[in-house]
Structures are given as C-alpha cells and as structure tokens.
Write a structure and sequence with these properties.
single chain, about 325 residues, alpha+beta, four-stranded antiparallel beta sheet
C-alpha cells in the first residue's frame, strides 16, 4: 500500500521537491553571502554593542549599506509563503480526487484493504514527507532572516509567518484543506480551484483580521499640545499596529478632515473640529510566542476539521 501510494504521487512529489530544492538553494547562496557581509562589515559587532539600534541608530550607516544590497531579497523570501497554498492545491487536492476520477480507489478496496487503512496510509506517507520538508525549509528561513531579525525584529507582518511553528502549521493545514476539497468534489481541477480559494480566504482572514487582536492591542493616546512624538518608544521587537489621530468620537484615523480646504495650521483646525489628539497602537515583543502558538492552534484546528470531514466523506461514499 505504501509502495502504491508512492507510485501514484511520485510525479507531484518530484515537482514539489524540485521547487523546495530551488528555494533552499536560493536561501543558501544568498544567506551565506549575507552572513559573510553582516560579519565582515562590522554591522554584527555594532548591533551587539547597541542591541536597541535599528537602521537609523548608531549603526545606521552600516545598516544602510547592508540593506541597500540585501533588502531587495526580502520579497523573494516572502514569496515562499505561497508554497503552502500551492502545496495544498497541487499535492493535496488531487490526492483523492484523482483516485475518484480514475476509479482506482475501487481496485484497492476490492483487494481487502479497508477504507480507513487506505486513507490512513495515504495521509501518513504524505504528511510525513511534508512535515520533514517544511521543517527543513523553516529552519533555513529562520537562519536566512537572522541579519534582518537583528535590525527589525521578527514581530512584524513580513517575518512572522516564517519565524516559528506557524509556517509548519499553515503547510499542514493547506494540505488537509486540499485533500478535503478533493474528496468533496471528486474532480481534480475543481478541487484545485476550490482549495486555492479556501486557503487564500483563510490566510486573509487570519493575517488581516485576527492576528492583530489575538490579545488586546496596547493603545497610547496623547494630546496635540504634547507634539506628534509618542510618549513611549517602541523597540524593534514591538509590533506597531497603527498610529494617527483620534477623531471626535475617539476612533483612530489616518487623516484629518477640516471644514477649511487648505488650513494654515492643520492641528488648530483639527482641534476646532473636535479631534482629540494622537494615538499609537502596538503589540509588545513579549507576546510574539503567544501569537505564534495561538495562530498555530488555529491552523491545526482547521487541519483537524478538514481531516475529520475527509474521513467521513470517504466512509460514506460507496463509489
């Protein structure tokens, strides 16, 4: 049964391994160059002496040179975050959908192999390989991002997804959702598109709606008379989730709407319009791992639901 599963999935496995190998090669080559320049330029030593320094602190000139050379690579590394979604669509969705389309599942069932065993073997083989590959890729991403981590921290929308167990949980979830979609539709192409739609929707909801509020944001407010500088200084590991003005109702906004089209003094105009002052919202660095485990739990819960639904669908469908 394990051999049969491998034979059926080897094409998708080779493609997936090829993509992961290319990603790992990119991370290895650029990461080695970054690590070398980070050390040789003196930036690493400077940051060790000034741990709270950022690109604008005492190490600013060294950081600027480093970032001018290597910051353009960050979007490429961030693009690797679509790998779990592609994995769910290309590997997960066809896993059972192709079986139903080609009716090969009936051949297996007629050979005294029960449906639970058939499903469990497929899931164990696939998830074992995916866990191993995603774990290796996560380790490389964390190592690759280390110089940027020392400059910007990792509690930000760019690095959060590949700085902890969230990456592995998202990969496992994508695979489970794809398998469930394939079992539900029993049509490979339809399952792929359904998987893509579901995974994109889940990621948007989690990253742009839930993540900010796993714990209540700390909001600091102050009056216009105290100037625009906030009364607190955020560290590089703190996550700035928003800043701006307080409108007359006390809600945060990024702009001021005055009755005068071009006021000479916008702040005086804002006061006259009832604006209350400034605000700064953030999540402190101490919550990073709490957020990681909360989001990991969300993805694993979705994984469990998808796998339970898959098992029920396989059990109930006769043909």
């Amino acid at each position: 049964m394990i051999w049969l599963t491998w034979r059926q999935e080897r094409a998708a496995s080779f493609v997936t391994l090829g993509v992961i190998a290319l990603a790992a090669l990119f991370l290895l080559i650029t990461g080695l160059n970054m690590a070398h320049d980070f050390q040789q330029s003196g930036l690493s030593t400077c940051l060790a002496q000034h741990p709270d320094s950022t690109s604008s602190g005492p190490c600013g000139s060294l950081a600027t040179i480093f970032l001018n050379q290597y910051a353009p690579f960050i979007p490429f590394a961030s693009a690797l975050l679509i790998l779990p979604i592609l994995l769910g669509a290309i590997v997960g969705a066809p896993l059972l959908a192709r079986e139903y389309e080609q009716r090969t599942h009936q051949l297996v069932w007629m050979q005294s192999i029960s449906r639970p065993r058939w499903l469990i073997v497929k899931l164990v083989v696939l998830f074992s390989a995916v866990l191993l590959a995603s774990g290796v890729l996560l380790a490389m991403l964390i190592w690759w991002y280390n110089p940027f981590d020392q400059l910007f921290g990792k509690f930000n929308p760019v690095a959060f997804d590949y700085s902890g167990p969230v990456f592995i949980a998202a990969t496992v979830m994508a695979l489970a959702v794809g398998i469930c979609a394939g079992t539900l539709t029993r049509r490979t192409v339809l399952a792929i598109f359904l998987t893509l739609a579901l995974l994109v929707a889940i990621r948007i909801i989690v990253e742009f709606n839930l993540r900010y509020n796993y714990q209540p944001q700390i909001v600091v407010t102050w009056s216009f008379d105290k100037g625009p500088s906030p009364p607190v200084t955020l560290g590089k590991e703190d996550w700035n989730t928003g800043s701006g003005f307080l409108d007359p109702q006390g809600n945060g906004t990024n702009s001021i709407h005055c009755n005068i089209s071009q006021p000479e003094n916008p702040i005086q105009c804002a006061k006259a319009a009832g604006y209350r002052g400034y605000y700064l919202a953030y999540q402190p660095a101490s919550r990073f791992w709490t957020f990681q485990w909360i989001e990991t739990g969300i993805y694993l819960a979705v994984t469990a639901l998808a796998l339970v639904a898959t098992a029920l669908l396989v059990r109930r469908r006769i043909n």
